[in-house]
Design a protein that fits this description.
The protein is of the alpha+beta class. Helices cover about 30% and strands about 30% of the residues. It catalyses: 2 D-alanine + ATP = D-alanyl-D-alanine + ADP + phosphate + H(+).
Length: about 325
């Protein structure tokens, strides 16, 4: 008998657009011989399923069920592809935990911690061979904060919302005059902001997932951007960025990166598929941790999809492994 899977998408942030694109790919790729898939759209105060005929059916939040034409539909599990809040920050995971419904992504605590870039770095800081750029975490915007940044950090700097994604609200500051505007831009997206020293290095993004009871590290993708950094435009507009999969690393670097990201996955108690962004510093080759994404994109050109194909695996089979790992 086929398992009934709710494909959860939408969201409360600007990342909902990307979430819908990811969901469209998952919906058409997932193994329909094994699973009945129902897409659930989650927006503030509006959780629903939309039929092909355009009929809208609300979700019963008591048990995350639907009633369509008198028939009640419940689910065996959830394929979570909702980027940002509430799908990536732990809120949705906490709800599913309370009603006893399994899901493909990290649990409530891991999701909440990893959504906060500053807290994540504090947790992984003692992993051998992992380095972290010097930074300051801000909880308010005030003139004295600017003075503190100038006293403690060196230019250039990255200014980013601490809980954001898709590089929304992020800026690179090369002269001090640019700092106040960059802080205003970041605080417009979040109540916490991370100010971080720039690391000169080659940028990579690597997928790690648990399937069939074991952790698999995928081939890393090297990011070569024509932009100053890997921002929203570089991530989602074709032609702005060159993505090389597998990325250009020697055997020692591949082995070392594999060791580090496996420990990051384990230390943060991750579940399902995650994507870890990092630099290899130009002069030293040191691994500098940037951030972890616990609901990575699943569009046709997404990095995880590229990396899955690079090991000769069908994306459909990858989704099956994620789903079966829930049960």
């Amino acid at each position: 008998m086929k398992k009934k899977i709710a494909l959860v998408t939408g969201g409360y942030t600007g990342e909902s657009v990307i979430s819908l694109k990811s969901a469209a790919v998952v919906e058409k790729t997932i193994d329909r011989q094994r699973y009945d898939v129902t897409k659930i759209l989650i927006y503030p105060g509006d959780w629903h399923h939309l039929t092909e005929d355009g009929e809208k059916y609300p979700v019963d939040l008591n048990d995350f069920s639907l009633t369509i034409k008198g028939e009640k539909i419940t689910f065996d599990g959830v394929f979570n592809i909702l980027h940002g809040s509430p799908g990536e920050d732990g809120k949705l995971a906490g709800y599913f935990d309370m009603i006893g419904l399994p899901y493909t992504t990290c649990d409530q605590l891991t999701s909440a911690i990893t959504m906060n870039k500053g807290y994540t770095k504090a947790v992984v800081d003692d992993i051998p061979e992992l380095y972290i750029a010097k930074s300051i975490q801000l909880f308010e915007f005030a003139k004295e904060q600017v003075d503190r940044i100038k006293a403690e950090l060196k230019l250039p700097l990255f200014i980013k919302p601490n809980n954001g994604g898709s590089s929304i609200g992020m800026s690179k500051v090369k002269i001090w005059d640019e700092l106040p505007e960059a802080l205003v831009k970041a605080f417009a997206e979040d109540k916490q902001v991370l100010v971080e020293e720039f690391v000169s290095g080659r940028e990579f993004s690597i997928g790690v997932f648990r399937g069939k009871g074991k952790i698999t590290v995928l081939p890393a993708t090297e990011i070569v951007s024509s932009k100053e950094f890997f921002d929203f435009e570089a991530k989602y507009i074709p032609g702005v960025t060159e993505e090389i999969t597998p990325g250009r690393m020697n055997e020692e670097e591949v082995a070392r990166v594999g060791r580090v990201v496996t420990q990051v996955y384990e230390k943060l108690n991750c579940k399902g598929a995650v994507r870890i962004d990092y630099f290899l510093e130009k002069e030293t080759g040191k691994f500098y941790f940037i951030e972890i994404n616990t609901v990575p994109g699943q569009t046709e050109t997404s990095l995880i999809s590229q990396q899955i194909r690079a090991i000769g695996k069908e994306v459909k089979d990858f989704y099956t492994e994620l789903i079966e790992e829930m049960f």
